[in-house]
Amino acid sequence: MRNRKLSLFQQRLRYLSKGNFHGVSGNWLAKQCESLSSGVFEFASVTNCPVKISAVNIKAGAEIFQSIVSEKSGKNFGKNFDCEVGLASFLYAHIIESKPSVVVETGVANGITTNVIMKALEKTGGVLHSFDVDPRTENVYKGNSLWNFHLLEGNFERDLELQISGIGKVDLWIHDSNHGYQWQAFEYDLAVSTLNSSGLIVSDDIDASTAWGLASKSIFKKSFGVFDARKFFGVATI
């Protein structure tokens, strides 16, 4: 256990100083965002946090995440496609407390994030629209609440724009799909044009490219970074 904690600490130091193999460092992100937090609990306590989330709901989200991971991790893709506990617990707590009516997520994979979101929406109401390019992901949720799966085909950018236009305004947009710069930049632009004025955009892997940091200086009103177990996720207002 001690060696594992030391290894995790060393990994965090590498990410903060150098970033991941294809992306940017935490130091660079810190200069682009309002703040960079070391975890969800710290993020929830910062004075300019754009959302109100309680420790009780964060903990409940973490427990739900662990249960879903044990059931679904690796079902469609490798475990490295799973989201991490920080992002999952944040999304659960935010949905429980903010009660968004329309939620969009891009990237389904093993359905970890999808099922965490749906666990919250089962309590609050609302609908989730999930987009993926692989038809294997269309059956990851088996509950009775409002979940709509959308398969992207052909020109993915054009198809996503077309299908989103049929949904209307969105309250919460979650990016967890292609983490390359071109797609992230495209999707952040599309999210901003689609979200309600009080809407929120959440993105996993904001350290994978410069897209989040550049959007923080151009199209986001305020943006924040949160360190998860091995990467950063971002939260932004528009």
Q: On the 0-100 scale, what is the average pLDDT? A: 92
Q: What's the story with the biggest beta sheet?
A: 8 strands, mixed
Low-confidence segments: 15-21
Shape: globular
Number of strands: 8
The number of helices is 9
Q: Enumerate the strands of the largest sheet in spatial order, edge to edge or round the barrel.
A: 1-7-8-6-5-2-3-4
What is the ordering of alpha helices and beta strands? HHEHHHEHEEHEHEHEE
Helix content: 40-55%
Quaternary organization: single chain
CATH superfamily: Vaccinia Virus protein VP39
CATH topology: Rossmann fold
Total domains:
1
Please tell me how large the radius of gyration is: 17 Å
Structural class of the secondary elements? alpha/beta
